[in-house]
Structure formats: C-alpha cells, structure tokens
Amino acid sequence: MWTTKTFLTKTKRGNILKIVREHYLRDDLLCGSAACNICPHKDDEFVLASNPESICALFEYPHYLVLDTNVVLHQMDVLEEDALTNVIILQTVLEEVKHQNTAIFQRLLEIIGNKKRKFYSFVNEHHKDTYIERGPGEKPNDRNDRAIRKAASWYASHLSANNVGGQFPKIVLLTDDEGNRKIAQEEGIVCCSVKDYIENVNGFVGLIDKLSKNVIPESCSKDALYPAHLTPTQIHSGIRNGKLFQGTFHASRDNFLEGTVSVNGYEKPILLQGHIGINRAVDGDMVAVEIFPEEEWRKPSDIVLEDKADDPGDLLEEEAVLLNTAKPADNNKDEITPTGKVVGIIRRKWRQYCGILMPSKFPGATRHLFTPAEKRIPRVRIETRQSDILAAQRILVALDSWPRNSRYPLGHFVRALGPIGDKDAENEVILLEHDVPHARFSEAVLACLPPNDWTIPEEEIKKRVDLRSICICSVDPPGCTDIDDALHARPIEGTTADGLVKYEVGVHIADVTYFVRPNTALDKEAAARSTTVYLVDKRIDMVPDLLSSNLCSLRGGEERLAFSCVWEIDENANVLSTKFHKSVIKSAAAMTYEEAQIAIDDSARQDQIASSLRVLNALAKKLKRKRLDNGALLLASPEIRFQVDSETHDPIEVQAKKIVDTNSMVEEFMLLANVSVAEKLAAEYPQCALLRRHPAPPPANFTTFLKAAMQQGFEIDVSTNKSFSASLDKAQIPDRPFFNTLLRIMATRCMQQAVYFSSGTKMQDEFYHYGLACPIYTHFTSPIRRYADVIVHRLLAACIGEDVTHASLLDTKQADSICDNLNYRHRQAQYAGRASVALNTHILFKNRVEIEAAVVLSVKRNALQVLIPKYGLEGPLYLPSDKFTYNEEEHFQICNGVVLKTFDELTVRLSLDSTNLQHRKLVFQLVEPHIPGFSYVPEQAMDVDAKTEEKKEEKVEAKKRKEARDTKVKKKAKK
User: Fold this and answer.
1) How far is CA 871 from the centre of its chain?
2) Compositional bias (Basic and acidic residues) at which positions (predicted)?
3) Among candidates 775, 754, 771, 802, which has minimal Cα distance to 683?
4) CA spacing 20 to 30 A to 956: which of 460, 604, 887, 930?
C-alpha cells in the first residue's frame, strides 16, 4: 500500500505547480527480534537477543532500548561503550541525525555495523503500522517525537503478541525531553532519562563519567556571570540590518582574555577583550558580534597572560589591569583596532579535546577541572569518580554546554590516552589536537592497492615516453623515503639565434594518479587526509606505505611511472619551450643534498650525474637571480633537525638545519615546474584550475617590524615586494652575520598564509603570489604527500589528452570545497609539526641546562620573545614589572640603564620547567647583559667571584698581620 503527499509550490515565473509524492508502506518489514514469533525471520536476520540480560537496576526484566534523536546526538560517547546492547534505532532518528550531524551519523553507522553490539535499524517510516502523517500545524520535531513513541508502542504490542506466559522483552524509551517522557507515560510507554538509566547501570565502571551535561537554557541561568546570547531570529535580523556581523572567533595564544573575529567590511579583525567581550565563545566558533563606536576602539594587549593555576570558582576577575585596555595615544592611531563583543553563537565548532585533569582539593569530590593541551581552549568542568586514576593520564574530554552562571564550560570524560609523558600518548595528543587523521588505512582503501610485487605492465610503457636511458637523479633530505621528484639536464645540439648553448631540463614527478583513481576508497581517504604530516620521529602518510615509500617513490635504480615537465632552456636560463608528458624513468641515483653538493664540488668527477648536477646548479642560480630581480622575497624561518636515538626514538641532539646550494637548486626547478603547470591549467580550464595564491600583507602587519628595523638604523620599504626585497638585501651589519637572517625571519611573520583556490572563484589579479612574485602558481611537484598535486596531475593529464576529464574536476563548487579542506589540513599539519618539535625539545632538555647566545625577536609589556640561533628555538623571557619599565611607543624595556630592544643580542640560560604537567615549557633566563638582582649568575662565575673575595680577604688579613708585626718591631725598637 502507499500514501500520497501533495504540495503546491510557486515557480520563478509565478505559476502554481502541484507536486504529488507517493510514500510506499509495507507490512513485511522485520522487527529484528529473536523473541518474535510473527515476523518470518531467517537466522542471520535476528539482531536483538530473545532474552536480553538487564544491566539497569531500574528495569530488572529483559528489555530493548528505543532512543530518541537527542540521545544519539548528545550521548554518543555513552553509546559507543559496550555496556548498552539490544538497542532499536528508528529510521526517523537516523534521518534526523544524518541531517544534523554527519560525524555523529557515521559513528552511529559503525555501531550498527558491529554485530556484537546488537543495534537494530528499523525502517519505521515505511511500515504500515508505525508510519504517521504530520498533523495540521504540527512542528516537524513534534511529529518525529510522535513517530518515535508510535514505533515504541508498536514494538511493545508486537512482541507481546503470541508470547505466552509473559516471557518476552519489554520496550524502554530513552529520552531526555521531559515533555516527551510525560506524553509517553500517559500513552503507557515505559520511558526513562539517559542520566537515570546510566546511573543505575551495574558492572561498567566509568560509564557515568561519559554522560553529556544537559544544556541550561539561556533565560533560566541563576546568578549569571555572562550576558545572555541573542536568539537565532535576533541574530539573523541584526546581521540583515547591519547592526551585527558574523565571523569565526580566534582566541589568542598569549592571552586567554583576548580574541579576534574577521568580518566583512573591516580590514582589521574585530578585537574582543575580557570574559564579557568574548562571552563564552570558544576558538573556532561562528559568532555574531556587535562592534563598538570608534571612540571605544582599542589596541590588542601586549601582555603575555595565562590562566591561573588555581580554580577561582565562578568569579570573573577584574580585567582592566590584566588586559591593559587603556586607549593608545593619538600618535599611535595605526595600532587601534575595531573593538566589539560577542552577542550570540551562530554555530559551535566544539570537538573532543586532549589534556589533563586537575583534581579537586576536596576529598571525595566528583567535580574537577580539566586543562586542555591547546592554550586557546578554556578549562572545562567535568564530573568523574576516577580522578585518582585519571590524574596521571592524558585524557580526552568533550564539551557539552556553557551555562551563563559558570566561569568554565561543562563537559564529560571520553577516554584515557596513556600516561602523562609517555611518548606514544604525547604523540597521540598532538595528532588529535591538530585533527590529523591517523587511523590505520581501512580494508576498503588497502583493497585499491596493487600487489606488493607489482611491476610496470608493458602495455603501459608503450603509452608513455620512455626516458629510462636518460641520466635522471633525485636530491632529497637524508632519510627521505617518499621521493616525489627527480631531475635531469643535458646539452642540446645547436645554439640559439644569439649563439647561446641550449639544454634540455626535465622535472619528473611520481605519477601517483596512476594508482589513485577518482572516487575510489583510496582517493577519498587521500582527499580527507589532504597531506602527509611529518612529526620528529614518525610520518603520517597521505597514501599507504606501499605507494608512498615504494611503488611511487622515485628510488635509485628502479623503474617508475612519472609525469614529466621538460623545458628547452638556454645558458642564460631563458625558457624556450615547455612540454608535458607521462613517462617511464629509471633514476640513476637517489642522493642527499650534501651528496649532490659534494658531487658538484668534486672536480675529479666527470660522470653523467655530476655533469648533469653542475648544469642544473648553474641554471638554478640564474633562475633565482631572475626571481629576486623580479621582486621575489627570500624569507627565512628557524628550522631545526633532531638526531634521534635509533632504539628509543628519543632526541639526543638538536641543531639548526644546514642549507647548501643543492637545496636551492632543487627548489628553483620545482618552482619553475609549478609555474609552468599553473599557466597551462589556467589557459585550458579558466574556471576550475586548482591554483595557489599568496595575498600581499596589509600595511598594518609591518608596523612593529618597521619600528624595530628603524631602531637598528634601517628604513625598510614595504610598498611593493620588489622594494621590500631590495631593502632586506641592503640591511646588513658586517659584524653581525645573523642579523639579516633574523630580519628575514621577522619579515616572514608579517606575511599572510598562502592558500589553495579554484580559479573560477577569484579575479585574475587575485591569482598573484606575493612571496614568489609570480602572477600564477600551483602545486604539481609533490603528489605523494599533497592531495592538491593529485588534483593538478588529473587536470594536466586531461589538458594533454593523457587521461579523461572527470565531471568532479570541472565542478567549481566542489573544487572550492576541496580547497577549503586542503587549506585547513595544510595549516593543521604545520601546527602538528611545530608541536612535535616542542615535545622533543622538552624531552631533550629534561635533564639539561645550557647557556647560549640569543637574539630578541619582539618586545612585549611583560616579556621578551627570544630566539636561540644555534637550536632554532624560541620562547618568552619574562620581565617583572617592578624592575623593568616598558616604552610602549618605541617598544623597548629599560632597567638600571640597560635598554632591551628588538634585534638585541643576549646570553640566556635554557632549562625545562615541568611544574605544569600540561604545559611543560622551556624557561629562558637572562645572563648577559647583567642586571643585578635579575640576571642569572652562572655557578662558575659565582665560584670565580667567591675566590676573588677570598683572595681579597686573604690580602686584607695578610696586610693586617704585616701591620701588626711592623707595630711590634717599632715598639721593640723604641724600647
């Protein structure tokens, strides 16, 4: 049988269109219970047990659970535990969950797919006895609640039919909706709240800790600390009439009482200050902000501030002192930022957070504070009865709600990750905190791989350009196994019209797309991961190891499939022609940067590899000169390399990375290949080419940097990237060779992030890459570790007729969505890498103290940000306000006549502070210049001082003894 639904809709032309939809109902849908004597089940169709054992003291008889939608949405951490079995998931609930939260929906499907859990999906919307129509004026939520009650009631009567003696499972409806429970009870349905049910479960320790905390309605908060949030209707109205603005909240890493929101119509982000200004927004939330009148605008705080170690209770401290909210002087107007406050939450972006438990000081307490590893996330109140055990563990906690009367948000314990300080647990924290997908590749993904002994089929070789006879080699960092690229150069007979020697130069990139075909499980996984993530002691691959380190890696002496970009170039590095083709190569050697440099420098070597490298190196220098003359910036960042113990994988030494000419050689040809491919794609696919742009930084980004350079006597012109590059080249201090590198490190921090984008979403002038000074750019050269390059390979293959064009490639909307994910994953991978460096630095300095040369990167109101060039490490050197005076206008600190400003050279003492287990940190103490009562005095110096004092005292004593003897002699003489 079926029912029909009729809709009337108005078309764009004003016509009334009648739509009739048929909804089929069946009477042969199975209930899934082994206790049923009515439904014609087969043995493998029984999901629910015939006599389920009750684990809840409230219902000691056998029963099945029926869940409503909110239980699934908010209590998934409870449902994922093995405690609850024999659960009925209705189609109504499945569809609502899918609509509201796809992540929760996927987790629910995994539980349903696990046969041990006995979760049965019942299609109540197509069963003739459980389907209901929506009543006139009935809200969708009310109709769905009624459908759930109808299904629960039907199950109860269905199971009782034909079961003599009352030996059949009962139905218990779990819902946290008090109104729904009341109606259900009136209809004779047994029901219960999740909290009441779980609190009476026996034999599952810790299950109650995973209960999500109920949200307290805004209007019902007693003793409110925070202003109430506006309703969605009020927010929508405010944004529409221009009184409110929406954007993503970004919390400050240095000051928990500050954050920003970028909104349309304002060049600078909107500054939010204080608990009231932030109003319970959490980093990543989409918020509605009200912007203050211009006379109330302020500058961001220059205080490095962390939350107090102790729990202040539900109090908000006086904030003006902590924030330095005084308005800047008139001559500092360029530092003023639009200021506002959060008035509503549009969409929460809460996730599960890693951290440690701060047990309550009260014995037997169940409420405790959780400190997240991510400094931008506030502490969380959770309830647990396992605090003694969890205090020594890294744990995972989910946020549930943030009532107006609570200083901190409320959450619940999810699971323990391992002991604090354990290397595996700490790495797990890094990956989880930065949302790095790192689960093992699924069986579906592995099924897409070729066999381990795969070799290139002859028919594939025939389709490609055979370059196996050419001397091609790769140059990479030591220990690299995912070799994406290889190079070759050889002279071409004849000369140009100007009599210049010509060369054929090729960049050969691993042909990953041969193995990763569109819309396969492997492709979807690679797209989701988007990038390989490099930690100090491990690598999280984008594609399985068989591809990344074997079949796609261009290893020396092995035949590989490649995508080649080949140029004809003259000796002055002018590109005469470019061609692209799929190829087969056999790399003659896989070399490290140093090995390649030695081959170039060794004049005794005249073999093909050395000759090819010399040509490449000479051309690369000319290409680089041209880029720099064109305005490209040579920026720098403090990069370090750890020496790791082969057995424990713990760091044993750290040093700044060494850069040799061959680093630049490889970089230049990768840049040239990327530009060449970008030009080709944009010409062929102007609406859907995947490109990479680098926006010019706004002038405000340079304010502090320019002041610091001026203090050293250099006027940096940042009006264009060309003038900026020329200014940086000239800013040299002969007796301080590191100064120019330091200047470039600071310049890097003024830049904006480079991002992927689809060409159809931007105007041509927005394609420009500021740092590289090129009008168009993309990523083509690393498809093993970047999904962006995979897309670019597919587009390029379609351009040259080497592969078919897929509909998804030409979909601008889908391309834009892919770019958003690429940018997010790329950024998170960078942060994860830095966090891994910090972790290993802490391990290295665990029982180590060193005194090293340092330089000042920036001056804050209460700290200096210093860099240790030897290690590439940086951190704050805190300055007490009672000793130091801060010059806000010129950004320097002064104490006892000693002035400390940006770029100053210092000597500092490095040690590790482990008192805060959550945020272990390197402590920087000033040694030189010496400031009495503040600077650290090394023990050796103390020993020297002590010996000097002893010698002085000995001299004084000797002098006294001598004077005493002389006096005696004189007295005797007189006598």
Assistant:
1) 24
2) 944-957
3) 775
4) 930
CA atoms within a 13 Å half-sphere pointing along the CA-CB vector of 719:
3
pLDDT category at 975 given cuts 50, 70, 90 is very low
Is pLDDT of 283 > 60? Answer: yes
* Residue corresponding to tokens 């009477």: 27
Please choose, from the candidates 752, 761, 872, 888, the residue with its C-alpha nearest in 3D space to the C-alpha of residue 814: 761
For residue 511, how far is the Cα from the chain centroid?
A: 28
For the stretch 839-868, what's the b/e string if a residue is b when 16 or more beta carbons lie within 10 angstroms of its beta carbon?
bbbbbbbeeeeebbebbbbbbbbbbbbbbb
Categorise residue 203: left if φ over 0, alpha if ψ from -120 to 50, beta otherwise: left
- With tokens 């002994």, the residue in question is 453
Q: Token pair 């190079």 is at which residue? A: 487
State how far the Cα of 404 lies from the Cα of 425, in Å rounded to an integer.
34
18, two tokens = 């009648």
Identify whether the C-beta of residue 16 lies closer than 8 Å to the C-beta of residue 50: no
Torsion-angle region of residue 86: left (phi > 0), alpha (psi -120 to 50) or beta?
left
- The three-class DSSP label of residue 625 is helix
**Which residues of 587-679 form beta strands (DSSP E)?**
589-592, 640-644, 651-656
Structure tokens at 895: 């104490």
Of the CA atoms within 13 Å of residue 590, those in its CB half-sphere come to 21
Q: How far is CA 219 from CA 226, 380, 404, 408, in A?
A: 12, 22, 9, 18
- The set of residues, in sequence order, having a beta carbon less than 8 Å from that of 515 and lying 6+ positions away, is 448, 449, 450, 522, 543, 547, 551, 552
Counting beta carbons within 10 angstroms of the beta carbon of residue 948, is it exposed (0 to 12), middle (13 to 18) or buried (19 or more)? Answer: exposed
CA–CA distance, 302 with 323 (Å, rounded to integer): 8
- Please give the DSSP secondary-structure letter assigned to residue 550: I
Of 403, 429, 431, nearest to 415 by C-alpha is 429
Tens of pLDDT along 737-762? 889 989 998 999 899 999 999 998 99
pLDDT number for residue 581: 96
- Condensed to tens digits (0 to 9), the pLDDT of residues 778-815 reads 999 999 999 999 999 999 999 999 888 777 788 888 88
Instruction: Give the position of tokens 């009006």.
Output: 719
Token pair for 677: 């491919």
Task: Pick the closest to residue 667 from 635, 638, 702 (CA basis).
Answer: 635
Task: Check: CB of residue 854 under 8 Å from CB of residue 729.
Answer: no
Neighbours of 707 (CB within 10 A): 16
**Residue 565, beta-bridge partner list:** 507, 580
Count of other CB atoms within 10 angstroms of residue 972? 8
- Nearest in space to 495 (alpha carbons), one of 565, 567, 566, 568: 568
Averaged pLDDT, 596-607: 92
Q: Which among 966, 504, 564, 500 has a CA at the least distance from the CA of 796?
A: 564
Backbone angles phi, psi at 642, to 5 degrees: -95, 140
For strand 755-758 and strand 921-928, is the pairing parallel, antiparallel, or unpaired?
unpaired
Highest mean pLDDT among 326-335, 719-728, 797-806, 882-891: 719-728
- Enter the DSSP assignment of 643: E
Q: Nearest-CA neighbor of 793 among 775, 808, 778, 777? A: 778
814 is written with which tokens? Answer: 């889908």
Rounded distance between C-alpha atoms, residue 804 and residue 829, angstroms: 32
Backbone dihedral region for residue 555 (phi beyond 0: left; psi -120 to 50: alpha; all else: beta): beta
The 3-state DSSP class for residue 251 equals: strand
Q: Terminal CA-to-CA distance of the chain, rounded, Å?
A: 144
Structure-token match 């949030």, residue found: 229
Q: How far apart are CA 920 and CA 356, in angstroms?
A: 12
CA distance 397 to 209: 10
Nearest to 86 by CA among 45, 128, 43, 115: 115
**Judging by DSSP bridges, how do beta strands 589-592 and 473-476 pair with one another?**
parallel
Q: 877 and 863 in contact (C-beta within 8 Å)?
A: yes
The identity of residue 572, as a single letter, is N
